[in-house]
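As agreed, record copied across for absentees:
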Amino acid sequence: MTAVQPHQKAKALKPSSRRPAKELCSECGLCDTYYIHYVKEACAFLNQQVAELEQQAHGRSRNLDEPDDWYFGVRKTMVAARKQAPIPGAQWTGIVSTIAIEMLNQGLVEGVVCVQNTEADRFQPQPVIARTPAEILAARVNKPTLSPNLSVLEEIEHSGLKRLLVIGVGCQIQALRSVEKQLGLEKLYVLGTPCVDNVTRAGLQKFLETTSRSPETVVHYEFMQDFRVHFKHEDGSTETVPFFGLKTNQLKDVFAPSCMSCFDYVNSLADLVVGYMGAPFGWQWIVVRNDRGQGMLDLVASQLETQPVMSQGNRHQAVQQSIPAYDQGVTLPMWAAKLMGIVIEKIGPKGLEYARFSIDSHFTRNYLYVQRHHPQKLAAHVPDYAQRIVGQYKLPQ
């Protein structure tokens, strides 16, 4: 890729308070830079273009005759994995951090865009360009809040970096792919994580205070495959809360409007995706989308324990029942929630079928949100694959 000239015209369009997507802005950081010049094309909430960008990034877009393409996107392979020697303090076993460190140590990249936290707040995201393994390790553990990862784009262009790894979520990566050719890079690698239901920092606080026994000591949390939210506390203890016991009536409006309007749960445009939802409990789900992603995974293959992906159960009834329950803000008594969780864990969807359950649940919810709050955007904003997924279910009016 050839270098480009700095964006002189765009520099004049930089007002950082400007948010063309308005209430749907995911605060990806693009509009905090002079790349705001490209926002009407680049923003996932102004211009849905997953299919075109899949072709650009992977050499093909999804085959809409193939249901697994609807769910998991373009891919070469999928596998379940975990590190043989986990990184202390990592949210899971540290696969993302390990890949980033190996790419830096082996000279494949000169910097890694990742997200540390501020000194004042462990959950407040602080995007950085990491240039040492220590700086990468300082970014371990998810920050479950809206994060302006792309706010460092100007720094990238001015730094002289030519080989870069970017770690991010779907809305950030769509914007990044849209301006990729403007960055003047020789090589760009993208390591993605699945993403759903982010919140503002205030929304996160409400979720913690509503859900955890000790919100002030939570280090990280995740909605896991056993249908429980797992909270890790400062003393090393783990707290679990059944999905069905969440105070949905109080939390229904806590998620960001951008997340309620998102249809890229699986990070379709990353080279390599590392998450959890398509793997058995305790393992990570890895999706290799193209040759760059395969090369990234190969770097750490000797450090991983792997097993084939599996799929078990049937999600459809559980998804259909969850649609009106969420829509009406139903909250079960904790005893009933725990009992339901035990039953569903034993007989419910697992592996890839759990991933489909999660995607179906969120896509039906998000479709209803867009239909009700932004009906004029519905046809253009919901990708074809998402329409096919939602079309499997009966939705309330």
